[in-house]
Amino acid sequence: MDLGIRNKKAFICASSQGLGLACARSLAAEGVDITLNGRDENKLVEVAQSLREAFAGIQVSAIAADLTTAEGRAHILATLPDVDILVTNNAGPQPGELKDWHEEALRAAMEANFIPAVQLIRAYLPGMQQRGFGRVINITSAMVKSPHYMMGLSTSARTALTAICKAISRDVAADNVTINNLLPERVDTPRQEFMLQRLMNKEGLDREQARARNVQSIAAKRYGKPEEFGDACAFLCSQQASFISGQNLQLDGGSYDGLV
């Protein structure tokens, strides 16, 4: 299927690895020109070159900037003032408990997983509306719909993003601009490796035991593949998905227990 987005321009936040990179790869496979983002410039250079080699004929650039700072976001917007596709993403806060959620921790969660996405959407949305095409994909979390205690900080900030984007989505749909959220759980990325190490240390398990325990919590009895996640992102960016907006798509191997 031709998704009809060849030669569109995409900016993918936090895309030097993990879910962000998976989205970048799937969009590049559809002929989308890609701008990567991360804080490690050397790593970005390597990843950008690997994409150029894998997907001939597309433009791949990179912006080294910290999304959590106003200076970082200003640098992004000065370098790349317009895009057709925006994929927001950032690493989540450390797991913790109520005693850990002091004011500074709450503020840091919002500064990482709410404010950057909203500010980039504010900046890019008017141009999308004027051109009559725009796709915003927010990488959030399955915890938005199934909160877990230890992930309360991440859940709160990402749920705030979900709410504000739902409100915005109704206002821009008539301009062929859609805003949707991808809710991953147990997709095989460096973030899951971090959570695996945490489980190993807490429970005294070896890696194989810890991974087996996690797999048992997934209805599909396996981890999700990054390329499955990336391809879902690419479809939501497609011409064919222009009637899908304000939605939360869970990529969790069928693990969610609810109806809606």
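(the above was protein one; protein two follows)
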Amino acid sequence: MTLRIQPSAQVDESAQLGDGTTVWDLAQIREQATLGSGCIIGRGAYVGPGVRIGDNVKLQNYALVYEPAVLGDGVFVGPAAVLTNDHYPRSVDPGGRLKRGEDWTAVAVEVAEGASLGARSVCVAPVRVGRWALVAAGAVVTRDVPDFALVAGVPARRIGWVGRAGVRLTPLDGESGSWLCPETGAVYQEKDGELLEPGV
């Protein structure tokens, strides 16, 4: 595998990109950002300074990932999704002076392994999206999302569970707290508001 960067993309020389990663037209990857192998950075996507991205991550067109976000392996970020970094955003300070980078403290969005963020969803930092969770298109995430949770709405709330395949789980007949993946046949167990994978 080889690194592929389109001529119109802007990749800072201090950024580290893994083998097999592709950066499409007009994407921007800022200084000290780290991307794993096999990533796809879509047209017009933005990766902020120092952002850390794992292997096999897809940022779809115009996704915006602001520092100091951390994305695990296999994360999907849909078109025009936004990961914010300022809990109290202001252009100016109380005295009316333009704020600079040193005038505020950036806070992170963390997206764990295998999780997916739907098109035009927004994650308001600081927040964590759990492993293999699914954030619906247009949702606004303002609090942590559990592993395997399906969340939707403004603000986002859990409306179900998904498995590793991303398909909504269905209750297993006659077994309280058991959830079936119709795609893979895997059975998950719900306990104390968390979903546990088979064999865990």
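Reviewer note on protein two: Residues 163-200 form one domain.
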